[in-house]
Here is the input.
Amino acid sequence: MTLSLKEIAEIAGVSKTTVSMVVNGRGEHYRISAETREHVMRLVEEYGYSPNAQARSLRLRKTQTLGVVVPGLVNRFFAEFAERFDGAARAQGYQVFLTATNDDLPTEIEVVKNLLSRNIDGLVVASADSAGRWTPSNKYLAIPRVYIDRLVARPEASWVVSDDYDGAYRLVDELCRRGAREVYYIGGGPRISTSMDRRRGVQDALQTHRLEQRPEQILERGYDFRDGYAMAQQLHDQHPTPPEALFTGSMTLFEGVLQYLQEQAPLWLEHTRFATFGKQPMLDYLPGSIISAHQDVEKMVEATLELLLRQISGDTEIQQIKIPLKFVFR
Amino acid sequence: MTLSLKEIAEIAGVSKTTVSMVVNGRGEHYRISAETREHVMRLVEEYGYSPNAQARSLRLRKTQTLGVVVPGLVNRFFAEFAERFDGAARAQGYQVFLTATNDDLPTEIEVVKNLLSRNIDGLVVASADSAGRWTPSNKYLAIPRVYIDRLVARPEASWVVSDDYDGAYRLVDELCRRGAREVYYIGGGPRISTSMDRRRGVQDALQTHRLEQRPEQILERGYDFRDGYAMAQQLHDQHPTPPEALFTGSMTLFEGVLQYLQEQAPLWLEHTRFATFGKQPMLDYLPGSIISAHQDVEKMVEATLELLLRQISGDTEIQQIKIPLKFVFR
DNA sequence: CGAAACGACTAAATCCTTTTAGTTTAGGAG
DNA sequence: CTCCTAAACTAAAAGGATTTAGTCGTTTCG
Here is the structure.
């Protein structure tokens, strides 16, 4: 059993107000004699009193709590983001509710609603739906929030994303510089902003290099491992010989592709040049040619937390930040 | 602005009690006429009322909140555990506070204290210190909790861990069956239970196969990438030719080792047989011989949540569960 | 007919803090 | 001696829910 403020006050023989003042040390227009302060403090320590956060935040209308909603944690980018964000937020006195939605919009909506009813102070979302095709509640619209990774069209709000267009462009540009004349594209769901931007980047780079773009060179499905596997299969079926170059929109997709190729078309692993989004230490040890681009997690965390805290402290300005990717040209 | 129960009651022209009853539908010894119920419900929908979780849990002494404390999320096992646990807990109506401690005991203690002051209903910890060399508060001792991955000596409590001893034994056994006569061990910090068990497994397997065990064959440091790198270096310095077999205690360690070997001793990658704990899809595409064992996350999540919920519902029995590992003998 | 039972509500207490608006005591100024 | 002020506290309200213990008519039963 933990004691309450009231009980401490009774034991100490002072009022609740006094104990509260001592514990919070907020002596604005109140003074407490050194004697009393010490007396109360001793009891607080002795009984290991710490304020009940429920009651506290009920009164203060502040929970010192943030919500982070991501598609999944097995995805290394989100894992790293979550881990760093958690640490940074904690350093600022916030505890984090972290939730994975599995990229499912109904789940996302349910989770956000739950978080809102818990009166979180701020919200970070990598949304499953960039188009914003659901009607947010007033409470949702009122809460400080930052979208990450994928920008969201509606409601108009702050976001921190990577420069996906530029990343895709430069990856494909590099493939071409290295001699590729035929680049295939395997990407995530066309309703997610990252997919759209990456695809545009790829296409513009091909255009710059005056390379042909046939519709069957563009495959889009989802960001899942199985999507990667399936698209590799589809590609292989329609084009049995190894293409010169293959671009995948995420590490998970790349893993799916790899799985298929190893099983059904190992020749590709030797002859095709790969470019992919995502980070993975083991890429360095794979045979074959692989270049990659990954998000600058540290900068993103920093920017996200700053935007969020600024909103929490009352600033209503909307800010939208695009962060450059990092490239590994092996 | 969201309305409160009181305001809804005023608009509806009924008491707070009635609204509360309608919303929670807990008509044990209270009845509410269909008419009133419908009337109130309409207003609740219209204004999008949902109860304030702070106030609710203050009264109920239940927060429908669980804490999960892990060393880090970039580690795939913890990421997968967290993701699945989050989903399973949400299905049971709990929201999860997830925190990464970076395997730092002071951080762990601080985080747990914070979670306790928020009155979480249950706690899951992969502790940075298996020896239990800190004094837990009464509140900590009283809260339903389950240790995972690493068991904790004190306080006596429920845990769900993998059968590390067996896993290490069988990996090394397999190495020996495949002809290895000399196995080196690279492991995590000797104060963490998983390290201790894995080491014992390795040593017992060597003994079974009547293989020599020199002290310099056993390296222990920590579970970090850099630890792996450093131990590989140390090993290479004292033994420049590729050893027949090398065991690493985690995927992160293996990655560190790989990094060093690729830079300084690429020959090893061809000639040494590797065995490692951990899961990583890309292992399948690496050249060389690698066998591995990884935790059965699904079963662990299931067991952990069940033990926790049972404790929350009042069962005080301590249960300690060891779950078999999964092996991939490539 | 009187008492008990029941249906349909409501008032007020409770959970634990924070904070506003006092209250009490002592000392100094006039 | 009275009045005022400062120092050091305290009482009570507020914050938003749940729940115990009623209240007040209307039926039902003996």
